[in-house]
Design goal:
By secondary structure, the protein is of the alpha/beta class. The protein has two domains: 131 residues, Response regulator (Rossmann fold), CATH 3.40.50; 91 residues, Winged helix-like DNA-binding domain superfamily/Winged helix DNA-binding domain (Arc Repressor Mutant, subunit A, Orthogonal Bundle). The chain is built from nine helices and twelve strands.
Length: 230
Amino acid sequence: MDKPFLERLKTLTILYAEDEEGIRKNIAASLRYYTKEVIEAENGKIALELYKSEKPDIVITDILMPVMNGVDLVREIRKTDEVTPLVIISAHTDREYLLKVVDLHLEQYIIKPVTLNGLLEALSRCLKRITQTHTIVYELPCGYLYDVDHKLLTYEGEIIHLNKKEAGFLELLLHNKQRIVSYDELQAHVWQDDVMTDSALRSLVRNLRKKLPKDFITNLSGVGYRFEMC
């Protein structure tokens, strides 16, 4: 898995529907390691309600579920949405159901038992679909926007120039905005093969703060930085 793929996954929200709690919790835990958020549903009806309210980037669903099965869930979504990537998880015995959804533009179906490699392959296909249909844009406070694909920071339509390290620093904080990003992570993801000196880090943060409103970037001495999405 390459770095850009993993970074893009960290921006995505997944809706995952599965009625067997043990399976759902295990797979959801694996997905959470790679993605921004995983929303769980125990049947298709709840999944449909969550799809409408939460607007996830990807929907992954089992076929056989009570109340509303995965096939009906997919059909309902496709009535109004031709874009969101859909993945079905099925047993070998579910092939008759799969024949009913071949015309609904599934991104992939995964045969049980589900493996991590199978999940990541499906997410890779989904990400290609997402990249073709829309870009990921962070809405920042005070009217600022950051376009991940084009590395563009804008304010009221005006482009604010970022160099490569500034963009990398900002993205890393945005992808992990619920926590503090450590100095080791900054070295690995922003400086990479270069050496991150204290003066270079302070200079980058000082320059980036000039391009953003006051107090967007906060520092916990000796630990790292975080982005305040107030």
